[in-house]
Each structure stands twice: as structure tokens, then as C-alpha cells.
């Protein structure tokens, strides 16, 4: 990507005018802006890249255009607007929700959605863990309350989110079964806390799960893949088990007839989102603090696979989309 300005601006941001491939990401200059009531001007040091960003860029998850992109970042408060009391200039902060626009060297952001960071947590690590950590937190503790003896099936066990989920589920006492897309990811998934790891094959997964669980099946399946894995996920559950479909990296899942849930054992199905689980500032901050405690206690560990310059956001997207990443991806302004 190339800057649209002839002279080097003070700050840069990535804009997207229409859905498409990684080449639609465009770097442009932006001048510093004075924060309004309840806002801060945030100088960013690190930006997280997530599969949701790719889905929004491709048009699979609709967003209005033109738009910024990105929901996760960390940096220092450079200026505060009227009425801001929870943070001050110089504070180290991170965030894991909208508004869109994290792909920027600096940006306006609502102060109530900022999370003050402990000194022991680096800004890169904060940008790598907050969005994914809060996602793991609500999935494991709210969508389904994982407890000692729970049998959980986690797709993408070798990826950035999957590694966090596997480690946290193991800490909660679960029997953790991970699913990966390729053999070279098996050991990484085991290191993250999996008791069993399966290389995905739609024809064999359900049988492997039942063998690992002595015939019972999984209590809950966490499936961010979507269309390609839906049937295998349903077939891997125990009677009255729960399918948590929360992503669509292989495409939006096909509709499920209500009768199918009955026929497969009175199954439960949910399609949760981070936005619905962080709708209020209080709930958002509570989940974020739980993530920070988990990091401080060594329950989960931010694992950064690669750092890219902001101008190389398209390359970062291509690597994530092609399944090359082995952990979190960070953009450096």
C-alpha cells in the first residue's frame, strides 16, 4: 500500500472503500484530532489482527464503506476530551471493541472502552491478547460454563485464539480436545493444553471424539470455522450437547432445520458475538480484567507469531487468510 499524500503526514491509517482482496486496504494520512466529550486521542503502539477483520474486508461480515478496519489495539493516551475521568494523558491502555479503525498510528476512541494496562504487560502483548482473550473468556465462562470434567472440543487449537482457549479450558479442569487443519499444528495444540488433537476430517472427526470420550461425545464444541465443519461438530456432541458457532472462516454455516437438533440428540445451538457480551462498559471491563488476571497468573500467554508494519496490513491479511499464522499477528504503526 502507498500513501495517498505527497508529503509525509503526522499519522497514518488504513482505509477500505469496498470489499475485496488484501489489495483494497489503502494507507492514507491523517492529521491529529482534538478529542470530544468522552473521547481520547490515542497514540497507538500495536494493533491486533483478527479473522473478523478479514471477514469484514471480504464482505462476508458487512460493514459500511468507506471505513477503517480493526477492533484491537494498545498505546498511550495523548489527549483527553471533556468529561474523561477514567484515564489520563500518558496512561498505557488497550481495547478490544469498536468503533472500527484500529489500523492506525493514532485515533479517536471512546474513553469508557479503554482498559488500563498493568506495567508488566507490554503493549504488543496487550494488542495480541485483549480481543482474543475476552472472546475466550465469554465462550468458556458464559456461553458454556466449563468446569472440572467438562469435555470440550475446540477448533483452531493451534491458532492464536485456539491456544488461549485450550490453555484456559485446561486450567478450568476440562478434558480438552483440539482440532487443527494440518499435521504440523498438532504439537503446537498439545503444547497449548490439549489432551487429544485431531487433524480435521469431516468423515472421521465424530468417531475420534467419541473414542476419546469413551463413547459419550463432547459437552460443547467451539466452532469458528463455519460451513465446512458444521455437520461434524453436531455429530461430535453428546445428547443435549451445545454447539457454539461463532465464526465463519470457511463461509457462513448453512441453515439448520429445527428437527435436526432433535434427531441428533436434543442438541443446543448458539451463535454468540463479542459485541453482545461486552454491550455495557461494566461488563466489558469485568471481562477484560479477568483476562488480565489470567495473563498475570500464567493461565494464558499472549503468543505473537509475527509483526508487520501498518503499511503491510494486506500481507498480514493474506498470511492469516491462507492459514500461515501460528499465533497472534500484530501491526506496528
Q: At the first level of CATH, what is the class of the largest domain? A: Alpha Beta
Q: What share of the residues lie within helices?
A: 25-40%
- Give the total of beta strands: 15
Whole-number mean pLDDT: 94
Q: Any low-confidence stretches, pLDDT <50, length ≥5?
A: 1-6
Could you please describe the fold and organization of this structure?
- Mean pLDDT is 94; it is low at 1-6.
- The two termini are 14 Å apart.
- The strands form three sheets. Strands 3, 4, 5, 6, 7, 14 and 15 form a seven-stranded mixed sheet that branches. A six-stranded parallel sheet has the order 10-9-8-11-12-13, with helices on both faces. Strands 1-2 form a two-stranded antiparallel ribbon.
- It has 333 residues and is of the alpha/beta class.
- The chain has two domains: 11-130 and 280-332, Medium-chain alcohol dehydrogenases, catalytic domain (Quinone Oxidoreductase, Chain A, domain 1, Alpha-Beta Complex), CATH 3.90.180.10; 148-271, NAD(P)-binding Rossmann-like Domain (Rossmann fold).
- Strand 14, helix 10 (313-321) and strand 15 form a beta-alpha-beta unit.
- Helices cover 29% and strands 25% of the residues.
- It has helices spanning 51-58, 123-143, 160-171, 186-192, 205-212, 230-235, 258-263, 274-277, 281-296, 313-321; strands at residues 11-15, 26-30, 39-49, 73-80, 92-95, 106-110, 115-116, 151-155, 175-180, 196-199, 218-223, 237-245, 268-270, 304-309, 328-332.
Amino acid at each position: 500500500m502507498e500513501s495517498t499524500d505527497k508529503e509525509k503526514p503526522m499519522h497514518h491509517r488504513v482505509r477500505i472503500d469496498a470489499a475485496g482482496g488484501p489489495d483494497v486496504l489503502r494507507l492514507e494520512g491523517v492529521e491529529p484530532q482534538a478529542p470530544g466529550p468522552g473521547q481520547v486521542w490515542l497514540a497507538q503502539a500495536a494493533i491486533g489482527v483478527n479473522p473478523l477483520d478479514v471477514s469484514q474486508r471480504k464482505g462476508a461480515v458487512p460493514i459500511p464503506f468507506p471505513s477503517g478496519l480493526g477492533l484491537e489495539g494498545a498505546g498511550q493516551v495523548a489527549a483527553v476530551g471533556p468529561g474523561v475521568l477514567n484515564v489520563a494523558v500518558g496512561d498505557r491502555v488497550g481495547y478490544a471493541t469498536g468503533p472500527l479503525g484500529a489500523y492506525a498510528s493514532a485515533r479517536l476512541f471512546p474513553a469508557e472502552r479503554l482498559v488500563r494496562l498493568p506495567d508488566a504487560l507490554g503493549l504488543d502483548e496487550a494488542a495480541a491478547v485483549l480481543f482474543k482473550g475476552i472472546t475466550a473468556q465469554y465462550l468458556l465462562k458464559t456461553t458454556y460454563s466449563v468446569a472440572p470434567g467438562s469435555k470440550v472440543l475446540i477448533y483452531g487449537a493451534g491458532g492464536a485464539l485456539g491456544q488461549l482457549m485450550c490453555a484456559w479450558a485446561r486450567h478450568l479442569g476440562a478434558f480438552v480436545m483440539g482440532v487443527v487443519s494440518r499435521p504440523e499444528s498438532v504439537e503446537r495444540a498439545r503444547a497449548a493444553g490439549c489432551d487429544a488433537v485431531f487433524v480435521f476430517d469431516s468423515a472421521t472427526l465424530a468417531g475420534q471424539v467419541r473414542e476419546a470420550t469413551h463413547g459419550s461425545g463432547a459437552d460443547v464444541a467451539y466452532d469458528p470455522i463455519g460451513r465446512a465443519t458444521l455437520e461434524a461438530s453436531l455429530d461430535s456432541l453428546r445428547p443435549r450437547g451445545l454447539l457454539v458457532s461463532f465464526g465463519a472462516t470457511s463461509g457462513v454455516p448453512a441453515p439448520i432445520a429445527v428437527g435436526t437438533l432433535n434427531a441428533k440428540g436434543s442438541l443446543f445451538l448458539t451463535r454468540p458475538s463479542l459485541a453482545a457480551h461486552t454491550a455495557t462498559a461494566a461488563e466489558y471491563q469485568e471481562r477484560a480484567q479477568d483476562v488480565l488476571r489470567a495473563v498475570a497468573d500464567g493461565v494464558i500467554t499472549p503468543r505473537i507469531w509475527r509483526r508487520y508494519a501498518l503499511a503491510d496490513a494486506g500481507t498480514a491479511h493474506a498470511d492469516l487468510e491462507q492459514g500461515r499464522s501460528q499465533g497472534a499477528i500484530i501491526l506496528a504503526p
